[in-house]
Amino acid sequence: MNLTKEFKVGAVIIGRNEGENLVACLNSLIGVVDSIVYVDSGSTDNSIEHAKLLAIDVVQLDLKSPFTAARARNEGATYLLKKMPDIKYLQFVDGDCEVQPNWVEKSVTFLETHAQYAVVCGRRRERYPERSIYNQLCDIEWNTPAGDTLACGGDALFRVKAFKKVNGFNDALIAGEEPELCFRLRESDWKIMRLDAEMTLHDANMKTINQWWNRAKRSGYAYASSCFLHGLSKEKYKVREVASVLLWSVLVPLLIFSFSFFHIAFIVTLLIYPIQVARLSIKYAALDKGWYIALLYALSNLLGKFPQLMGIMNFVFNAFKGTQAKIIEYK
Description:
CATH superfamily of the largest domain: Spore Coat Polysaccharide Biosynthesis Protein SpsA, Chain A
Shape: globular
Number of helices: 13
Distance between the termini: 41 Å
Structural class: alpha/beta
Number of domains: 2
CATH class of the largest domain: Alpha Beta
Largest sheet: 9 strands, mixed
CATH architecture of the largest domain: Alpha-Beta Complex
Number of strands: 9
Helix content: 40-55%
Strand content: 15-25%
Order of helices and strands: EHEHEHEEHEHEEHHEHHHHHH
Radius of gyration: 21 Å
């Protein structure tokens, strides 16, 4: 039974200057869902023309207002729900992703048979992990366990009823908007499922350490802004992540500096980082990517605390000054 033929499914694709990746994304959903809208955020390439040539509806964000991915998704959802008020499910996809065959049908089937779930996501994989170590690190990051989970990423199928109940994404967040929405859904007694099924191919296209730095900085900003919103909740949302960043990027360096005046203690404290890298490497070796990749992933996670600290500081500065944050892009 093809449930996607029985229930209205819409797709919201967001992007800017995604080029051929956008074409692949659009083609992967044509004929699969009932309606598609592409929300463009100021592209200077042929993204809008590509979408129109494929007869896809296009919404161009008014860039006089601050752009966020959350705002783009919300505007796309609003457009589709006005066009087709009977849509039951919304598939959100980033424009640099290609939806895998049968994903939409599998996810709709799950939500139709599990009424307590608001969101379902699946396996997101890197299209070209071999092109750079940074792409490989992203591919590992996407490979999270299947089953009940706390959050999804930018690619996921949402039950419209649940999405509307919590008023969609938070437009003000420049990063971390998907986990924050999932938090509010869970607070409203909905559940999130990650299926052991292929969902999307993603093209991170990361080639430089500067891209890696900015991506990690964006994560730190997301932790801080989400913690600011919900840190006092029963779950203490994102408090642990912020605390971890402060521990490894501030407290441990201060400890090492303080003990540098005492020879023996200084030597011991210098071992803290290598021990942590070794511990994480052993943990990540279970991912069957080999010890070399496990070591690099461990180093990335630990050294990433420093750009994440920059992101946290950026959030604190903006909050103190009352200034509107700008999105942190890595490509």
